[in-house]
Write a structure and sequence with these properties.
945 residues, alpha/beta, Nucleotidyltransferase, domain 5, Rossmann fold, Fumarase C, Chain B, domain 1, 23 strands, binds iron/sulfur cluster
Length: 945
C-alpha cells in the first residue's frame, strides 16, 4: 500500500462521547510496513476512571491525574493527522470522541472493521483481537498505541487480501460505493491502482473463508432421493445398548467417554418410541448426555428405513453443537466400529426462507442506481461472499443490526410473483431450492423451532414430508409457537412505511418510491400514454400518502388518549392495556374505531394504486426503465406490507377473534404507541398441526417437569397419549450443592428488602472474591443493586457487571470467564443462557422467585382460562424458570457450588416447597444473613465427597 496513513486508537472512560472522556490517544503514521512516526499520550479526563476500564487497560488514576488535558495536545494531534487517510477499527467511535473535542478531520477514512466484514466472511466476530488472532497479527492490548499498531497491521493484511480479488470485483465494489456515496470506495480505488499495475501477474480471483473448513461426513455426496422402505425395520435395542456400554464402540472411539445409565435408559426409550410409533416426553438433567441418547437410535432408524427424521432445537448453540460436534463424533465412532454403512447417512441443517439469499433480488438491487449506504455495504459483502458460498445462508455473513434491514429486501421471502419463472430456479442455482433439494435427500434434518413451527404460518413447504420428530429444548416450544403466531406494530413501523414513498435521494434510504418513479419515467423510452398513466398514478399515490399521514396521526393520538385514560402511569415501565370485551365498550374506544376506518380506507387506496402501478410497469419492456427490477421489487414489498399492516390492525380494532389476545402499549423508553396480537392458546394448534399428524414425536429437555410430573407442560403443549420418562441426574447434588436459606431477610415487598439484598451481596461477594452470578426478575432491581454494590466491591478489586448496562450477555459471559473475581448480575436470558464449568461460577444468588408479572398481557389473558390460575399456571411456570436458574450452578460432575435464595416466600408461603421439590435434593442450610458468607466459603472449601 503506497499511501501514507495514520492509524488511530483512543481509550476512553466509556462508550458515550457526550458523557465520557478520552484517557489515552495512540496514533501511528505509516507507509506500507514502514512506521514513519508515532503519537502517544495519556490524557487527564478530570474525573475518576471506572474500575472496569482500569481493569481492562491497566491505566492507574494517578497516571492520568498527572497527564496533560486534551486541549494541550489538540494542535499536535491535528498536525500529526494532517491530510492522511485515518485508519482505525470501528473508527467512527474514535472520531466521535474527537469531534466532541472539536477535531473533525475531512480525511479519507479506512475502517478496518468494515473492510474485514467485506473481505473476511464466516467470522464469528469482527473484534480487533479476534481478527488479529485469526490472521496471526500482533494482539491488541486495550492500550491506544498497541491497538493503533494492530489496526495498521490489519489494514495491510486486508489490503493484501483484497489484491486477490479480480479487477471486475474491485470495480464493482467501487461502483457500489459511488452509488451510495460511501467512503470505503477510496480504499478499493487504491487497491485497483496497484492491481492494475500487476494485472498480468499470476494468481487472484476468489477469496476463500479464513481457516480450513472441516469437511463434514454428509457433505461429500448428496446421494439419491430417499424412498421409505415398504416394510418398517425395527431397531435392535440390545445392539444399540451395547454401543453405549463401558467397553462399547463409543468408549473405544471417543476420548473421555463415560458410561451413563441415564443415557442408556433414555436411548432405549427413544428407540422404543420409534419402533412402536409412539410419542414420548423425556426429561434428562444436565450431564445425562441426551443428544447422543436420541441421536444414536435416530441415526439407525432413519438409515435403515430410508426416512427423514427431523431434529428441532431452540438455540443456535445446540444446533451448532449437533451439526459441528455430536453428529460427526457419533458417525465417526460408528464408522470405525461395526457400522461402516453409516457413512451413507446424510444430514442437513435447514433454515427458514429468510435465511437464504435470493439471487434474483440481489441482481435487481445491484442494478439500481439508488442505494443507501447500508444497502451498498451489504451488496459489497455479498459480492465477495458469493464467490465462495455454497449455501447462501446469512449465518455465514454475521450481519449487523443495520444490515439486517437491508437483508430483508434480499432474502428468499415474500412475493411469489417475483420468483415466477426465475432463471435461478431453472438453472438450479437458487440457494433456497438447493437447500430444499438437499433436505429431500437427507436422513437427519436439523432445524430450529421457528422453522419447525412454520407449519402453523403461511411459510409452508420448506420441510419435506416427515413422520418422525425429535424436539430438544422442548420447554421453549410454547413461547416459540406464541411468537410465530404473534405480531406487533409500532407507530414507527407505520410512519416508516409511509416515509418510504417520500424519502428524497441522499436521505440515507434507497426508497422514496414517488421520486424514484418520476425519475425512472423521465429517462424511459416508454410510450407517452403509458408515461402519462404512470404519472397520474404517482400523483394519486402522493395525495393518498398525505391523507394517510393525517389519519395515522389522529389514529395514534386516539389510541394514546384511550390507553392513558384506562391505565395508571407506570413510571419506568410500559403502559399495557389488554383489550378485553369490557374495554371495547369504554368511552373513547369508538373514537379509535372511527379513526381506524378512515386510515384503513386510505391504506386500501394506497394498495390499489400500488397494484395499478405494478400492472402498468409489468406491461412495459424492462429495458425502458432504469433499475426496473429493483423498482418492481420495491413496489411488491410496499404492496405486501400495506396489506399485512391493514389486516393486522383491522383484526385488533374491528375484527377481534375470541382465541387471540390483543393489547395496546405506550413504550416507556421512546413513548411510542404499539399494537400487539398473540394467540390465547397454542396447545390445540400444536396438537392439530404437529403432534397428531406424526407417527412419533419425542420431546426432551432438562426442565420439563414440575414436582416430578409432566402435567403442566403436557397441558400447555396439547400433548395427549404420550409416554413419559423422567430421568434423575447423574450429579451428586447433596454432596456438591448447598442451598442457603437466610432466615432473617425481609419479604420482597418490604421497603427494607433492597437494602438487605445489597448488604448481603456486598459481604458475600467480598468474602468469596466474586465467582458469583446473581439472577434478577427485573432490570430496575438489577440496576438498583448494581448502583449499591459496585463501588464497595470494586474498591476491593472485584468487578461488578450488569446485563444490559455493561454489554451484551455474550460479552459479559466472556468477561466473567476471563476474570472470575467478578460478580455478574443478570436478568431474562441469563436464567438459562450461561454455561460456565468449574469454579469460575461457584455462587448463585436467586434474588426473587421468578413469578411472571401479573399485568404482562399474554400471561394476564391466559390466566383467565384457569379456575385457579396461580396454582395451575403461574406457580408451575415459575417453578420451571427457577429450575432453569438453578441449572446454571453445577455444569459438570466435578463442580461445587452454593445457591442462595434471597426470597423469604420460599420459606414462609404454602407454595414454597414446590420450588425445592422441582429440583434435585441438595444440602439445605438455614441460617442468618450474617453467617452466610462464612458458610458459603466453608462449603466451597470442603472436599467433594
Ligand atoms: S427461485 Fe425465488 S428465491 Fe430463488 S433466486 Fe429465484 S426468485 Fe429468488
Amino acid at each position: 500500500m503506497n499511501q501514507t496513513c495514520v492509524a488511530l486508537d483512543l481509550e476512553t472512560t466509556g462508550l458515550e462521547p457526550k458523557i465520557d472522556e478520552i484517557i489515552e490517544i495512540g496514533a501511528v503514521k505509516f507507509r506500507g510496513d514502514e512506521v514513519i512516526d508515532t503519537f502517544n499520550s495519556l490524557i487527564n479526563p478530570r474525573r475518576t476512571v471506572p474500575y472496569r476500564i482500569h481493569l481492562m487497560c491497566g491505566i492507574e488514576q494517578s497516571q492520568l491525574d498527572s497527564s496533560p488535558v486534551f486541549e494541550e495536545l489538540a494542535e499536535h494531534l491535528n498536525s500529526f493527522i494532517d491530510g492522511c487517510p485515518i485508519v482505525g477499527h470501528n473508527v467512527s467511535f474514535d472520531l466521535g470522541f474527537l469531534a466532541q473535542k472539536g477535531i473533525m478531520p475531512a480525511n479519507a477514512i479506512y475502517d478496518t472493521w468494515e473492510l474485514a466484514t467485506i473481505l473476511l466472511f464466516q467470522q464469528p466476530d469482527y473484534s480487533l483481537s479476534s481478527l488479529a488472532k485469526k490472521l496471526g497479527l500482533s494482539p491488541p492490548q486495550h492500550r491506544a498505541l498497541p491497538d493503533a499498531m494492530a489496526a495498521k497491521e490489519l489494514l495491510l493484511a486486508l489490503f493484501e487480501r483484497s489484491l486477490q480479488l479480480d479487477i471486475t470485483t474491485i470495480e464493482e465494489l467501487i461502483r457500489l460505493s459511488e452509488t451510495a456515496d460511501w467512503e470505503t470506495g477510496r480504499f478499493f480505488r487504491e487497491v485497483l491502482k496497484l492491481k492494475a499495475k500487476t494485472a498480468f501477474s499470476p494468481g487472484g480471483g476468489t477469496l476463500t473463508p479464513e481457516g480450513k473448513k472441516e469437511v463434514s461426513l454428509w457433505e461429500k455426496d448428496a446421494g439419491p432421493t430417499l424412498t421409505a422402505r415398504a416394510e418398517r425395520a425395527s431397531l435392535d435395542i440390545e445392539k444399540l445398548s451395547a454401543i453405549l456400554e463401558p467397553d462399547g464402540i463409543l468408549a473405544q472411539a471417543l476420548s473421555g467417554y463415560e458410561h451413563r445409565p441415564g443415557q442408556v435408559h433414555m436411548m432405549q426409550a427413544v428407540a422404543q418410541a420409534l419402533n412402536n410409533n409412539e410419542h414420548l416426553i423425556v426429561e434428562a438433567g444436565t450431564g445425562t448426555g441426551k443428544s447422543i441418547a436420541y441421536l444414536l437410535p435416530s441415526t439407525f432408524f432413519a438409515m435403515e428405513n430410508s426416512v427423514h427424521l427431523v431434529i428441532s432445537t431452540n438455540t443456535i448453540n445446540l444446533q451448532e453443537q449437533l451439526i459441528g460436534k455430536d453428529i460427526p463424533d457419533l458417525l465417526r465412532a460408528l464408522a470405525l466400529g461395526q457400522a461402516p454403512s453409516i457413512k451413507n447417512l446424510r444430514v442437513i441443517q435447514l433454515k427458514g426462507r429468510a435465511n437464504y439469499l435470493c439471487l434474483k433480488k440481489y441482481e435487481a438491487m445491484r442494478a439500481s442506481s439508488r442505494l443507501s449506504i447500508d444497502e451498498a455495504k451489504l451488496l459489497a459483502r455479498i459480492t465477495v461472499w458469493l464467490q465462495s458460498t455454497q449455501t447462501g445462508d446469512r449465518a455465514e455473513l454475521n450481519l449487523s443490526g443495520s444490515e439486517t434491514a437491508a437483508w430483508n429486501k434480499l432474502c428468499a421471502e415474500f412475493d411469489e410473483r417475483f420468483g415466477m419463472q426465475c432463471p435461478h430456479r431453472q438453472r438450479d442455482t437458487c440457494f433456497l431450492y438447493r437447500a430444499r433439494f438437499a433436505a429431500e435427500n437427507a436422513h437427519l434434518i436439523v432445524v430450529n423451532h421457528a422453522l419447525l413451527l412454520s407449519v402453523m404460518t403461511p411459510e409452508t413447504g420448506v420441510l419435506p414430508h416427515y413422520d418422525h420428530l425429535i424436539i430438544d429444548e422442548a420447554h421453549h416450544l410454547e413461547d416459540e409457537a406464541t411468537d410465530q403466531l404473534s405480531s406487533k406494530i409500532t407507530q414507527w413501523d407505520l410512519f416508516n412505511y409511509l416515509n418510504q414513498f417520500r424519502n428524497e435521494p441522499g436521505g440515507g434510504l434507497s426508497t422514496g418510491l414517488l421520486h424514484w418513479l418520476d425519475e425512472s419515467l423521465r429517462g424511459s423510452t416508454a410510450a407517452l400514454s403509458r408515461k402519462r398513466q404512470l404519472k397520474q398514478l404517482g400523483e394519486s399515490l402522493d395525495s393518498h400518502i398525505d391523507k394517510a399521514q393525517l389519519h395515522l396521526t389522529t389514529f395514534l393520538d386516539r389510541i394514546r388518549d384511550f390507553v392513558e385514560k384506562q391505565t395508571p402511569d407506570q413510571g419506568d415501565y410500559d403502559r399495557n392495556l389488554l383489550l378485553t370485551w369490557d374495554k371495547r365498550t369504554q368511552p373513547g374506544w369508538s373514537r379509535v374505531e372511527t379513526s381506524w376506518e378512515d386510515l384503513n380506507l386510505v391504506l386500501r387506496d394506497i394498495a390499489d394504486d400500488l397494484d395499478r402501478v405494478y400492472i402498468a410497469l409489468d406491461e412495459l419492456e424492462d429495458s425502458t426503465i432504469s433499475g426496473y427490477e429493483h423498482l418492481i421489487l420495491e413496489l411488491s414489498y410496499l404492496f405486501s406490507r400495506s396489506n399485512e399492516l391493514r389486516q393486522q390492525i383491522d383484526s385488533l380494532v374491528s375484527q377481534p377473534e375470541s382465541d387471540s389476545i390483543y393489547w395496546l402499549s405506550i413504550n416507556s423508553q421512546n413513548d411510542s404507541v404499539e399494537l400487539s396480537i398473540a394467540p390465547l392458546r397454542v396447545g390445540r394448534v400444536l396438537r392439530d398441526s404437529l403432534f397428531s399428524s406424526k407417527d412419533c414425536v419425542i420431546l426432551t429437555g432438562a426442565t420439563l417437569s414440575t414436582e416430578n410430573h409432566f402435567e403442566y407442560i403436557k397441558d400447555r403443549l396439547g400433548l395427549e397419549n404420550i409416554n413419559e420418562v423422567l430421568l434423575g441426574t447423574p450429579f451428586d447434588y447433596p454432596g456438591s450443592t448447598m442451598i442457603y436459606l437466610p432466615a432473617d431477610i425481609p419479604d420482597p415487598g418490604d421497603a427494607r428488602y433492597q437494602q438487605a439484598l445489597s448488604d448481603m451481596l456486598t459481604e458475600l461477594c467480598r468474602t468469596c472474591r466474586g465467582h458469583t452470578l446473581v439472577l434478577f426478575t427485573s432490570h430496575a432491581a438489577l440496576r438498583a443493586t448494581q448502583a449499591a454494590i459496585q463501588a464497595p466491591l470494586e474498591q476491593e478489586g472485584i468487578l461488578v457487571m450488569g446485563q444490559g448496562v455493561d454489554g451484551s450477555p455474550k460479552q459479559l459471559i466472556a468477561a466473567f470467564k476471563a476474570n472470575p473475581e467478578s460478580v455478574l448480575l443478570g436478568t431474562a436470558s441469563l436464567w438459562e443462557g450461561i454455561d460456565v464449568v468449574g469454579d469460575v461460577l461457584s455462587v448463585l444468588v436467586i434474588t426473587r422467585l421468578p413469578f411472571n408479572v401479573p399485568t404482562e398481557p399474554i400471561f394476564a389473558a391466559r390466566c383467565k382460562l384457569f379456575d385457579d390460575p396461580f396454582n395451575e399456571y403461574g406457580l408451575p411456570q415459575a417453578a420451571i424458570r427457577f429450575k432453569q436458574g438453578f441449572g446454571r450452578l453445577i455444569r459438570s460432575k466435578d463442580d461445587r457450588g452454593a445457591l442462595i435464595i434471597f426470597d423469604k416466600r420460599l420459606q414462609t408461603k404454602r407454595y414454597g416447597p414446590v420450588f425445592l421439590d422441582s429440583i434435585p435434593p441438595c444440602t439445605i442450610v438455614r441460617g442468618s444473613s450474617k453467617e452466610l458468607p462464612s458458610a458459603v466459603v466453608k462449603w466451597l472449601e470442603r472436599e467433594h465427597n
